[in-house]
UniProtKB/TrEMBL annotation, chains A, B:
Domain of life: Bacteria
Every RNA 2-O ribose methyltransferase substrate binding domain range: 21-99
Pfam (any one): SpoU_sub_bind
SUPFAM superfamilies per record: alpha/beta knot (SSF75217), L30e-like (SSF55315)
The keyword Transferase appears for this protein: yes
Annotated protein name in UniProt: RNA methyltransferase
Species per Swiss-Prot/TrEMBL record: Candidatus Litorirhabdus singularis
Signal peptide as annotated in the record: none
A GO BP entry: methylation
């Protein structure tokens, strides 16, 4: 049995930190068919009725070197964390860019780093579109905690057009503590908010230090607790009295304007 | 009876060019409750069963100086153009920024103009988000034709968070002819496409002439017919092998990068 401090535990934990569990027949089949993705395990409910698509999944999993595991229906629900929509199928996909935030902060950094941190992005479509924009725009990491944000699941993967699998997701338990660790590591924390007196267009000019931009909930914005940590609040100038932008649009503007 | 060349006809046509017909009980009620919007006519099906919300709509319409018209169910479907979802209710809302593209091109232009033209934006959520981004980013006009694009209806209005009502929509019958007219009026036509050899980041620097950026269908991109008209094809550089961006994100990047 492995104990928390053993090397084996750390390796396994690092492996699991890099995995995303997808569920549902179409999402799992698509992931297995993508030659750029590595599947670690295919999980099937032993109550599934025989079906060609299940047979195909198993063949693909074997070809790709993934383990095929059968479970009772309840155990499968525990793995997918969505028994209502898993359709008796789940898969653990390896995402090479995923890691714990603290692990990322310990690594030597190459050049100026630009991170996004998510403080309550509750809509999975928004999360997926945000990831797609951030990856395309070369953002170095997306700080994500399970608490308060939409899950890294099928809806977000679909909205990300699959870019989520190769996104640099930095997991953390508690966003406040995570941001404090970033600050201690030399990152400036910038919160996005309409009340910000600094325009993103100005803040992003000639910047040389590493920075974390915090994006808040679609309705409530960034929480008070997180705003207290910020080195600056930046806003995006908007014409014609528009009050806010979609959070994925905001992420794209940060990624492409702050270079 | 008015004839096409009479001043009365032109006034009425100009008025109708500025109107958007919304339908469905919630969208109509929200429009009537918004003090910044002008309602021209409230349309009700005479087959509607009495309901408090209908009573409220009529009171608001009268307060706001709108005409209240009753119609047979089939006539109401003709007005809403969506009998399945109109719930017996429609309203003509005046949008001060809407006009015909040709009318816009005849007006004197104040400074450099930046337009977007839509070549087959089929998803109403994308259309609405695009409008929200373009309005916030100060785009001077959005060239829209009924043919090939999602309708300027309730789904797009919702996704635009209401900014569609005050967007500078430039209607045209045929996008190819509309773009040719823009070109004749001195606009450069730039098509967005992954195959473009010019980066938006470069194209947008130090530009002084007026320009139309053409955004294509979510899957197929800009059509061949329209690409032939283009003065240039511009692309947005994308990291990590991402193949495309959401069209609303693209619109925002144009609006904020080409200034």
């Amino acid at each position: 049995m492995s104990v928390p401090d053993s090397p084996e535990f750390k390796d396994r934990k690092a492996l699991f930190d890099r995995m995303i569990t997808v569920y549902g027949r179409n999402p799992v089949l698509e992931a297995l068919e993508d030659p750029n993705l590595e599947c670690f395990r295919l999980h099937l409910a032993d109550s599934n009725k025989p079906a060609a698509v299940l047979q195909k999944m198993q063949e693909l999993a074997v070809q790709r070197g993934a383990e095929v595991c059968f479970h009772g229906k309840r155990e499968l629900s525990r793995i997918s964390r969505n028994g209502k929509q898993d359709q008796g199928v789940a898969a653990d996909i390896v995402c090479p860019g995923f890691r714990q935030l603290e692990q990322y902060l310990e690594l030597p950094r190459q050049g100026r780093q630009r991170l996004l941190a998510l403080d309550g992005i509750s809509n999975p479509q928004n999360l997926g579109m945000l990831v797609r924009s951030a990856v395309a725009g070369g953002i170095n990491g997306i700080v994500w905690s399970a608490r308060g944000n939409a899950e890294l699941g099928p809806l977000a993967i679909k909205a990300s057009t699959g870019t989520l699998y190769r996104a640099p997701i930095l997991r953390c338990e508690n966003l406040g503590k995570g941001l404090a660790a970033c600050q201690a590591a030399g990152f400036a924390i910038r919160v996005l908010g309409a009340e910000g007196s600094t325009s993103l267009l100005d803040a992003a000019t000639g910047d040389t230090g590493s920075v974390v931009y915090v994006l808040g909930n679609e309705t409530r914005g960034v929480s008070a607790e997180i705003r207290q940590l910020a080195d600056a609040t930046v806003s995006i100038p908007m014409a014609s009295g528009v009050e806010s932008l979609n959070v994925a649009v905001t992420a794209a503007l940060i990624a492409y304007l702050d270079r």
